[in-house]
Structure formats: structure tokens, C-alpha cells
Design brief:
The structure holds two protein chains of two kinds. Chain A is mostly helical. Chain A is built from three helices and no strands. In chain A, helix 1 packs across helix 2 and helix 1 crosses helix 3. The chains are: A mainly alpha, B alpha+beta.
């Protein structure tokens, strides 16, 4: 899957979780700066990514997935490693 | 606290904060540290929801199936935290999200539902618990719950 498609799907997930418009989600804004973001939402984000992309994600990796951009890179790496 | 892989009876009331009429686990059948907890709920025509759900056609509400699952999961989380030494009595378990639930067969009075739950992800005080519910050999529901903590205020 291309990075642009991954990013688009991640933005759809983020938009649904945080009641945002997709066009208003920046690539580089850290998730912790979003309203409603906490450890529960982080874990929910992880579960939704696993469902969407068919990968297993160790919660420790979330530290490196703090933005749409970094999440896109990590998902691409995990998908390539499958 | 029971041993970490034991058939010692786990007293439901010692591990759940819910009380009548909202206890949805009758008995814990087994638990293994880091593994699966199995719990049972016997569905009785005597339960109040059947007065209205539905008159003449009693069906156990899906939301209560989720509650059965959640209470089994809450016992598992509590046992796990006790084993880990991370239990905090000043915090209260709450459901953060109900995910991927499927209801495969209606539950009726007289059914004995067995629920198996396991923690699949942990991050701080938040956990994802996955599980499946059976009546006999028939799977009746499955899904995941996201659990978090709030302060008792």
C-alpha cells in the first residue's frame, strides 16, 4: 500500500475518533495536543490501526507514532515486514 | 487472592463493584495469570429486563451481553493488577470503547453463557480485553472492550 493511501486511512481514523474534518488534520501535529487524547484513546487508535491495516502493533511503538506522518511511516514499515 | 493458575474459587463479590440487580457474572470458572479468565452467567426468566424485552418473547438484551463481558473483563483486570502489584483502589474502571462486537445468536432464558476474556494490549492503566461468549459449543457473541481508569470523585 502506498504511503499516501495509508496516510489517508489514518486521517479517516483520527477524524472519526476526535470529531475532526479530515482536511483539518495536520500531518505533523502531535496527537497529545489534540483535545480528548489520553492513554485510552491512544490504545483505541492502535486497535483501529491494527484492524485497518492487518498488522500487530506493540503498544511500546506508540511512542514513535505521535503524529499522522510518523504513524504512516511505522504502518508502512510494519506492512512491509509482514 | 487466588494463586496465579488455580481453580481456587474466585468470589465474584470480592472483585466486582456492581451489586444487585446489576451483577452479570454468577461465577468465575477459571483464571490464569497473563491468560484467559472464564466466567459464567445463567440467564433467568426471573430477571427484570424480560418484563419489557420483550413481552411474550424474552430475549436477553445485547447491551447486557456486553455488560456480562465487561464484568468478566473487570474481574480479569483486577486480578491482573493484583498480581502485578499495580492495583490502585483510588481509581475506578470504566469502559472507553466497545469495539467489533458481534451478536451471533439471541440469548434466551435458560441459557448458560460462558465468557472467555483475555487482555491483549496494555498501555498505562488502559487495556484492551478481547473475548468470546458461548452457550454450550455455540458462539453467541464476541468483541473487544477498551478499559481505562477514572478517579473516584
Amino acid at each position: 500500500m502506498e504511503a499516501t493511501e495509508i496516510k489517508s486511512k489514518i486521517k479517516e481514523i483520527v477524524a472519526g475518533m476526535f470529531d475532526l474534518q479530515i482536511e483539518n488534520i495536520p500531518d505533523e501535529k502531535p496527537f497529545p495536543q489534540m483535545a480528548k487524547y489520553d492513554s485510552m484513546r491512544a490504545l483505541e487508535f492502535l486497535a483501529k490501526l491494527e484492524n485497518e491495516f492487518g498488522v500487530l502493533i506493540d503498544p511500546d511503538l506508540l511512542q514513535k507514532m505521535g503524529t499522522v506522518e510518523s504513524s504512516t511511516q511505522m504502518i508502512q514499515e510494519l506492512m512491509n515486514a509482514k | 487472592m487466588p494463586s496465579e493458575s488455580s481453580q481456587d474459587e474466585i468470589q465474584v463479590l470480592d472483585y466486582l463493584k456492581q451489586r444487585f440487580p446489576f451483577l452479570m457474572v454468577d461465577k468465575v470458572l477459571s483464571w490464569e495469570k497473563g491468560g484467559v479468565l472464564k466466567a459464567v452467567k445463567n440467564i433467568s426468566i426471573n430477571e427484570p429486563q424480560f418484563q419489557g424485552h420483550f413481552p411474550g418473547f424474552p430475549v436477553f438484551p445485547g447491551v447486557l451481553t456486553i455488560e456480562c463481558f465487561a464484568q468478566a473483563a473487570a474481574i480479569l483486570v483486577r486480578l491482573t493488577e493484583m498480581a502485578e502489584g499495580t492495583l490502585r483502589e483510588d481509581l475506578f474502571d470504566v469502559i472507553g470503547s466497545v469495539m467489533d462486537f458481534r451478536f451471533l445468536k439471541p440469548l434466551r432464558p435458560g441459557d448458560r453463557m460462558e465468557t472467555s476474556v483475555a487482555i491483549t494490549k496494555t498501555m498505562g492503566h488502559s487495556r484492551i480485553v478481547e473475548g468470546r461468549c458461548f452457550v454450550g459449543d455455540t458462539e453467541v457473541a464476541s468483541g473487544k472492550l477498551l478499559f481505562g481508569k477514572i478517579e473516584k470523585t
